[in-house]
Amino acid sequence: MVNSNPNVTKMPGPSNGRPLATPKFQWFSLHALAGEDQAAKIDLTADDLRWSDDIVSVDNANSYNATTAENNNGIIDIHQLYGDSANGVEIAFFGTDENAGGNATAGVDIVAYTGGPQDFSVGKMVYSADDTVLLGTRVCNNNPISGAAITADDGFWADTITGTDYWDVTIRNSGNNEIAIMSFDLRGYRFIRMVTYELDGTGEVESLGAILRAF
Q1: H or E stretch including 155?
Q2: How far apart are CA 80 and CA 38, in angstroms?
């Protein structure tokens, strides 16, 4: 006997073989192309996960709301840019290498915060790449957001990202001369901060920048 009750939930038909697609939003600058922010990686035993005094200062307190191509201080307010619908982010790195030979290295720490600099919240380390972000040979001669020419040395995308995962980070395309992509869920966190170090030494990247988009 066939059940003709219209309230009975019908089982879905066979799959068409297409993967589910997650909507992705516009790319923004996470960190302007620049030299190192500090000399060494974030010290997890100290107060390095707190917003620094210079960011909390009057001059920089609202810089995390920037929507320009050259974002200030390596900080993005996800809610300001994408609203409450963002569940995760993707990050890609690019930089300059005066030797133009590829494999120049850089140090990068990614930190997440529930509150902004004016809230004096303590961050949570997401990922630490201690001199292990490597530029490949895929050319990046223009700022990927503004389109402005990168004239200081030769510009390249990072093709390798390795490091210590404190979150549950996925790295795609790493080590194959493609544009390496770091992605992770936000877990309810609102602010993402990027800190660079170990730049401009022998075999190291001259300057480093990054772009971010939410999904």
Answers
A1: strand 154-161
A2: 27
Q: Are strands 28-34 and 207-214 parallel, antiparallel or unpaired?
A: antiparallel
Cβ burial, residue 70 (10 Å; 0-12/13-18/19+)? middle
**What does the domain layout of the chain look like in residue ranges?**
28-214
According to DSSP, the β-strands at 88-97 and 207-214 are: antiparallel
Whether the CB-CB separation of 17 and 203 falls below 8 Å is answered with: no
What CA–CA distances, in Å, run from 162 to 104, 134, 170, 172, 182? 14, 9, 10, 11, 10
Digit-by-digit pLDDT tens for the chain (215 residues) are 444 444 444 444 444 554 445 668 889 889 989 999 999 999 998 788 887 766 666 445 455 555 554 555 688 889 888 888 899 999 999 999 877 666 899 999 999 999 877 777 889 999 999 999 999 989 999 999 888 899 767 899 999 999 999 999 999 999 988 999 999 999 999 999 999 999 988 889 999 999 999 99
The whole-angstrom separation of Cα 64 and Cα 155 is: 26
Residue 208: what are its φ and ψ, rounded to 5°?
-140, 140
User: What's the pTM value of the predicted model, to 2 decimals?
Assistant: 0.84
Task: Measure CA 19 to chain center.
Answer: 25
Residue 111: CB atoms within 10 Å: 24
CA distance 204 to 143: 20
Alpha-carbon 91 to chain mean position: 3
